[in-house]
Amino acid sequence: MRSWCLCQICTCGSDYRPYEIVKQPRHMPEEYKPKEGKIDLGTTYKRDFNSYKVQPVVIVRPVERQQVKKGKLDTVPTYKDDYRSWEIQKCELCKPEQVYHPPAVKFGNSTTFQDDYVPQEIKPRQSFKPCPVVKCSTIPFNGDTSHRLDYAPYQLEVKFARPKEVYKPTDQPFEDLTTHRNDFQGLTGETAKICRPSYTRVTQNAQFKGSTEFRESFQPWEIPPPEVKKVPEYVPPTGSMQLNSTSHLDYVPYQASRVVAIRPVSHRTKNSIPFQGKSTMKEDFPAWESCRQGLIKHQQQIPNPSGKFDGLSTFRSHFVPHELIPTESCKPLKAALKSSVPLDDVTMYSIEYTPKKQEICPASYPSPPGYIFENTNSQGHKFFRKIIPTVKAF
């Protein structure tokens, strides 16, 4: 497919003519000039609050006096003097000794539980579940339903069947020529020529200066190394260290005896009579043998099948295998059609493209052509003004 475009002549160049533009005046800031003299750094805080010499506070705490006594303390406190231990005599028990004699006659009184609850024989409950045995009926089965009795069959008309048409192939050959094959015949032609102008690199003989405004304004300054505060060397004190404390000097060790535990004497008497562990509960309710009721299984009504399983289904018995015939492909062969006509590789781009002249950036020149130098600001930037050609009026 080919694309077509319409070219229109622009009237902008003929209607709009260049006029001289007066540049607006720019406000130039005044150059900063530092004032002469020194800055007065005095403040009201420095004027009103004078510095005084501060001395450390003297501790009013009295000096601790260490009184070391070498004599032994032999005194009786008021608690031991007022509360003295008295001898206490143990009281004798006045309870007469009673020896237990078990009765020789059996206990014959019955309890209310034995009188009211008489043991009875446990009988299994009767099952009211219906019997699952199939009951066969002697009456023949009547297959009449309401649908069979009420439905009346009607005679249907014969349906018209359209005869099947037999396929008849045409005698004319098949036209498989498409627009793609008609227009593009697959010929090998010459490659399209690029109409782009060759790139010419602009170079200068002068050596590039790597200095910038930042490098010129901000020069490296020497920074003095930080002062390291010297730590005074540790000097251990002379003489031996006194490890005596007030507790070590004032404490006098005493020999103390361990307190003996005062445990009361047990008056437990031992009996040689054996223990009788019988009770009315054990005599009246002995352990009975109990057995769990087994499961009630019913006899199988349907007998199991006998003989070998055939494994033949209705699908296998009715299915008839047919031979598979593959469908014939009508796709044309991928054969490239050659033509003796040369390829027309002329395009709209190669016909209407006009190469433009590559302009050079004016900043690369020390004095750019077509510009007039005006002034330089305080930061060192140069300003140029473009020369506008004068246009004569008609």
From TrEMBL:
Belongs to the FAM154 family. One of its GO terms (molecular function) is microtubule binding. It comes from the Eukaryota. InterPro entries: SAXO1/2 (IPR033336). This is Stabilizer of axonemal microtubules 2. One of its GO terms (cellular component) is centriole. PANTHER family: STABILIZER OF AXONEMAL MICROTUBULES 2. The gene is Saxo2.
